[in-house]
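Section 3.1: Structural characterization of target chains.
Under the original work plan, the team committed to producing a structural model for every single-chain target entering the pipeline before any wet-lab resources were allocated. The record below documents one such target. The sequence was received from the expression subgroup and is listed exactly as submitted; it comprises 262 residues.
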Amino acid sequence: MSQSVIFHIFAFILGAVVGSFLNVCICRLPRKESVAYPPSRCPCCGYRIPFYDNIPIVSYLFLGGRCRSCQARISLQYPLVELVNALLTLFLFMKFGVSLTFLVLFVFCSALVTITVIDLEHQIIPDVISIPGIVVGFIAAFFLPLLGWRDSLIGILVGGGSLLLVAYGYQLLAKKEGMGGGDIKLLAMMGAFLGWRAVPFIIFTASLIGSIIGIAFMLAQKKDSKLAIPFGPFLAFGAILYIFFGREIIHWYFNLGGGGRG
């Protein structure tokens, strides 16, 4: 087995292990509980989960998706979060290799996975992730070759400021709140990690995909336009899309526009 394959396997395992911890955060942060204590237990019978029943992805398959003690069903969310984070980590490693950029974006994407699931389930974005994330992203920008502290600082201001203006404008026109402060702080965090150039791409992508899915969901559920759909997951999707394909998509778009004028 080549060294490259070993590194790729390690990246996948690392993502899955961290994904297991993300499940703890997803479960406990909305309830304002400690993510360190007590150890993981079955929510139905209180059975303390031993290490061999807590192996990411594998334990879920081995147990048939049920608690060893009471046979209650284990949510499919647990292996899905572990698998998604494992794949994201693998793809980040394939793109950036062993580098500080990989490490920083690994932390960033893991935070986005956590935020996405919490926002889908509870329609909140925990400040305990987004606010420290802004600080971490800005500090990391001093050491990342593809970014820089100025781009990061402008990204924070543009990211948070743009959604703040949208939220204020909507509230002014509709006389009600249409966007939570969590989305504003989340986009500021994205600007800190990815720079100001990523912000328009993320907003456009999130708005486009969110509108398509939102309309389809409302038609399927026969709900009116007042249906509340969390925007955080679409912002997270836009940010991840930018990491892997953003520059190529932007380059393709401007080349397409230039070709049309010729």
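The mean pLDDT is 87.
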